């Protein structure tokens, strides 16, 4: 579920703030957005879990984070977190190219080439991690219903490039590790080579015309040669990827185009294209361009044609919710959760719809249950805590509301507010109680960060 619409006001405020502090941003440097989408993340995880296992990593411990930006880039930061720009995904022609890039980034994780900062980022939202990397300090996080939060920094800053850049030795090491992982996983490694071929010409371009990926992952001829020589030796170099994966690749590219560049959909998918990917892109584009009835009709037809696809039900729920038909969105979200019960992100969306559909205590408690389930899967989500605070506030449970506001502030690295809010809980709750202990843990964590 890609959410962009909710953040228009916040994006504007963030833009104005950054223009005052960083004038270069106003001169054309694009903002970066964290995108959370169950479908895209799940598809990529399905493809790459064998890679992570081959690297000796727990696939559940490696997080795939999408960054909305047209640039070609990917990097690892804040632990086993792989940040992938949507521009990179859109530039791939097949699953193998994306798998190859992620295998390479996994090589950086296993090789200890992680991007380090002076700040501990283990207990931070993905927005805060990205904000720190981009030199802003704490990210501008809103806690609203949007899954895409504006990160106020230019994606092409010299400081960012220096911070993200790996050495040539590290790059070659990550290449070789990637090929080893793909060999163990019995996967075709040719995608890594074809992706590198797309970037090869950039080596000879002026510095300011090279892609972010080339600038932060230096390419040299001998590195490409070594890569291709080893790929030629792979017994899996001609092995095709599953047809299912090819269809998934088409769907996620269609989804990204529909949400990010809806005006391009009619050019890419003409009237004769009746593929599911084309229909998906057209449905999303109609929604993004505020064609209310058309978007709802298309979403309904999509669900009717593919009743067991949870992401199509989720999309219909999102469209109804964003167009103000909150009550109608609930059944669609509920069906999506029924089909995909382990999805924390879809449960968050359902909980939000339940909270906004009324103040009935039973409905609010139902929303809280979904959020408590989701937080096990999404411990870095500040949005969960904002929604929990809202639900508890409407149930007149001010202490729990404050606790979750404090938790939200910790994830957003707004430590002064978090500590002040947690301190009020210590004053009102019995020492040693569960809530008192949770508040004390927040304060202890913050004090540790400041030492």
Helices, strands, pairings?
Layout: H1 8-21, E1 32-35, H2 38-54, E2 63-68, E3 74-76, E4 81-85, H3 86-91, H4 95-110, H5 126-133, E5 149-151, H6 158-164, H7 168-184, H8 190-200, H9 212-216, H10 221-232, H11 243-260, H12 265-268, H13 276-288, H14 292-305, H15 310-322, H16 326-339, H17 344-356, H18 361-377, H19 382-394, H20 398-411, H21 415-428, H22 434-450
Parallel strand pairs: 2-4
Antiparallel strand pairs: 1-2, 1-5, 3-4
Helix pairs in contact: 2-4, 2-7, 2-11, 4-7, 4-8, 7-10, 8-10, 11-13, 13-14, 14-15, 15-16, 16-17, 17-18, 17-19, 18-19, 19-20, 20-21, 20-22, 21-22
Q: In short, what is this structure?
A:
The protein is mainly alpha-helical. It contains 22 helices and five strands.
